[in-house]
Amino acid sequence: MEKTISEQCKLIGEHPNSSFFYEWLESVDEPVTENKKHRHLSEKKASREFAIEQISDWIVKHHIDEKRIKRLKKKREEILDKYGFEEYVKKQTLLPTVDKTKKGNGTEIILAEYLQETTKLNLLVYRLRYNTNVNQAMKGDDVLLLNRENLYEKVIVGESKFRTTPSKAVIEEVTKEFAKEMRLPLSVTFLAQKMSDFGDEDLAESLEDLNVTLHDGKVPIISVGFLLSNHNTNTNVNRHLVSNNPNFVFVSLGIEKPEELIAMSFDLAEEKLKRGNDE
After folding, report:
1. Pairing between strand 248-254 and 221-229?
2. How many angstroms separate the CA atoms of 278 and 39, rounded?
3. Which terminus of the chain has a lower count of CB atoms within 10 Å, N or C?
């Protein structure tokens, strides 16, 4: 008997059957209605410590480029005193220290990594590396994924939110823009500029051309809303989610004490930077 593919899978791919997300999360594609496509994620037992380890590495990767990491390691060799190096790292303000920004960035990072895994599309730029104020939220698309080899295949745009409790208001906030109708991505020209900065003028030009084509409605745009909140998230999303956009999927992640996941992941990321991220 042929396997039935859910509408969620058609838009964002199947939940991984191996790798980190398989080990960390259970996945259920909720029954689809005319106004609702919802994938509910939940945490597997005894997987929190394992998740924090991986997310902390992603936090470093999304915020700090490889060249700066190399400079930090070089500086560590120059500053022999352990506490002197830790103080040096602290003064660099490499990661956000504001709680709200940590929660927003951490949630965005989880969504970006999840969708890369399920869709096999590319995150061309780690945008958080280019935030001029690390403690403020960055404008633009939270997640923008494309196929580097075929930009016109489809575009995935993601909007992420963290809430300690999953209210109706936050679900409506996620859905108010692109759940009702197709919303054009905001950051394609930003990607084009970064590709130009990197010396890839061909890709930069292709992205600029793509931006024009997107306005003509000739490229599929998949919109994804994401909410990281507590164990009541699934119930509240199912109750309040309404969307008239056939290409919109809501992904919820409901876990116990979500604030601890983010806080401990950032703490570990900071610790890894202080010890050179190589121990």
Report:
1. parallel
2. 36
3. N
d(CA 45, CA 206): 45
E strand or H helix that includes residue 144: strand 143-145
In contact, 218 and 243? CB cutoff 8 Å: no
Give CA–CA dist 187/202, Å, rounded. Answer: 18
Neighbour tally for 98: CB within 10 Å: 14
207 close to 151: Cβ distance less than 8 angstroms: yes
Inter-residue contact 154 to 217 (CB < 8 Å): no
Q: What is the pLDDT of residues 19-61, one digit of tens each?
A: 999 999 999 999 999 899 999 999 999 999 999 999 999 999 9
Q: Is the dihedral of CA 72, 75, 80, 85 positive or negative?
A: negative
H or E stretch at 267: helix 258-274
Helix, strand counts (H, E) of the chain: 11, 6
The string of DSSP letters for 100-121 reads HHHHHHHHHHHHHHHHHHHH--
| Nearest CA-CA partner of 27 in 253, 237, 243 | 253
Strand ranges, E, within 25-104 = 25-29, 38-43
CA-wise closest residue to 229 among 277, 186, 261, 269: 261
- 7 CB neighbour count, 10 Å cutoff: 15
pTM for the full model? 0.93
The amino acid sitting at 159 is E
* 85-123 per-position pLDDT tens digit: 777 777 777 899 999 999 999 999 999 999 999 999 999
